[in-house]
Write a structure and sequence with these properties.
The chain has 377 residues and is α/β, with parallel strands linked by helices. The protein has three domains: 8-124, OB fold (Dihydrolipoamide Acetyltransferase, E2P) (Beta Barrel); 141-296, P-loop containing nucleotide triphosphate hydrolases (Rossmann fold); 310-376, Probable gtpase engc, domain 3 (Ribonucleotide Reductase Protein R1, domain 1), CATH 1.10.40.50. 32% of the residues lie in helices and 19% in strands. The strands form three sheets. The chain has a six-stranded mixed β-sheet, with helices on one face. It has a six-stranded mixed β-sheet with strand order 11-10-9-12-14-13, with helices on both faces. A hairpin with a 4-residue loop joins strand 2 (74-79) and strand 3. The longest helix is centred in the last third of the chain and has 24 residues, at 353-376. It starts with 12 loop residues before the first helix and ends with a helix. Mean pLDDT is 85; it is low at 1-24 and 38-57. Bound molecules: guanosine-5'-triphosphate (GTP), magnesium ion and zinc ion. Zinc ion binds at residues 324, 327, 332, 334, 337, 340-342.
């Protein structure tokens, strides 16, 4: 499980000798060393995290991997040689990210191969980016990490069935930006945009988000040619497809993969909404293009943003920037202040009313969360 280092000419004699040992002996020794270390220091955690960053993982006897999906209580890690390994996380699993989901799809992990039975994730490495949502049914600020270490959030909506709403798009934009992730928007099911008023709505949203500055694609999973620009855009990235249930995330992923691997579902006849077909996130390699991965996620009914400071929220609505400079009051929240240039720009239509409405909604939610936090302490 521990691949010999191909760059072995850079190793010291001792390390070189280590590599010549049978793999089982190497693992045993590495594990012994680690156990000794562990006992030596109380600052063990910090050191482990620091060391992991220095990527001495293999020399330490740990196998690096990336979590690609879950399977019941287990996680499936893809190892560097491309093979998959069933692993688990436990009380002894260390994580740089506190008060958040311990392990999730996209996480880079170090696996302890010396444990008997299902190997244990020794450590979850620091997440470069993360997509967070507020954990339902919890009042503290615990963050549910939907997916980690992705470059691009592809917000999927459908023009009809279910109908497009900017509220969910803006929530995801905020969550993506907050997590350090780039944004793209996909409007699916354009084959259903037949009536002139639906076509007009499609054009309206395309123009709106293009103007704000996010790449946006109008596609239909029923015609793979409509996906060519998106396909090219995804090359070289690790992206996550997120959105309401039934908008066609899995259908699109299937077309992009050129397979039927991802299960897709029927819409409920009554509501024309998705029936939550995809039940867990899965990271997939996009066929022939190297280093291109996509994570298909289960559809959400609603998306509650994880705690964002009310005073910081305005910076995530990028098109407010040029107007905010002209507000009469410094640190204007653009909610109630007199001579607010953002409100004025919304009135003239320079800022889309939907975007401003999303801002107000999210601002109020942020205030509520801050109040709840104050009351807890
Ligand atoms: N007309 C039309 N139907 C589509 C299109 N894309 C997907 N569908 C249909 O929409 C339904 C839902 O598609 P899924 O791909 O399962 O949707 P999903 O977003 O993965 O849903 P969840 O897994 O529940 O989140 C299926 O019946 C698809 O056949 C499209 O471009 N046009
Ligand atoms: Mg799905
Ligand atoms: Zn203002």
């Amino acid at each position: 499980m521990i691949p010999a280092d191909p760059k072995s000419e850079n190793l010291s004699n001792e390390e070189q000798e280590e590599l010549e040992l049978p793999q089982s002996e190497r693992i045993r020794r590495a594990h012994e060393d680690r156990t000794r270390e562990r006992r030596k220091t109380t600052k063990h955690r910090e050191r482990m995290v620091g060391r992991a960053a220095a990527s001495s993982a293999v020399a330490d006897g740990y196998t690096p991997g990336r979590i690609v999906r879950t399977e019941a209580q287990y996680l499936i890690a893809e190892l560097e040689d491309g093979t998959e390994l069933r692993v688990k996380a436990g009380k002894r699993t260390l994580a740089a990210d506190q008060n958040a989901t311990l392990v999730t799809v996209g996480d880079r992990v170090l696996i302890d191969p010396s444990t008997t039975g299902v190997p244990l994730i020794a450590e979850v490495l620091e997440r470069k980016t993360k997509l967070l949502r507020r954990a339902s049914g919890r009042s503290d600020d615990y963050a549910q990490v939907i997916v980690a270490n992705i470059d691009l959030l592809v917000i999927v909506v459908s023009i009809l069935e279910p109908p497009i709403r900017s509220g969910i798009i803006d929530r995801y934009i905020v969550a993506g930006l907050e997590g350090g992730i780039k944004i793209a928007i996909v409007i699916n099911k354009i084959d259903l945009a037949v009536k002139p008023e639906i076509k007009a709505e499609l054009d309206y949203f395309l123009t709106l988000y293009r103007k704000v500055g996010y790449p946006i694609f109008a596609v239909t999973a029923n015609d793979s040619r409509s996906l060519t620009p998106l396909h090219e855009f995804l090359a070289g990235t690790t992206s996550v497809f997120a959105g309401h249930s039934g908008v066609g995330k899995s259908s699109l992923v299937n077309v992009l993969l050129g397979t039927d691997d991802e299960r897709t579902g029927e819409l409920s006849k009554k509501f024309r909404r998705g029936a939550h077909t995809t039940s867990r996130s899965v990271l997939l390699k996009l066929g022939d293009i190297s280093d291109t991965y996509v994570v298909d996620t289960p559809g959400v009914r609603e998306f509650a943003n994880h705690a964002i400071e009310s005073t910081q929220l305005k910076f995530l609505f990028v098109e407010f920037g040029p107007y905010a400079e002209m507000c009469a009051i410094t640190n204007c929240s653009h909610i109630h202040e007199p001579a607010c240039a953002v409100i004025a720009a919304t009135e003239t239509g320079a800022i889309a009313i939907e975007r401003y409405a999303s801002y107000v909604k999210l601002f109020e939610e942020a205030l509520e969360q801050e109040k709840a936090t104050r009351e807890r302490f």
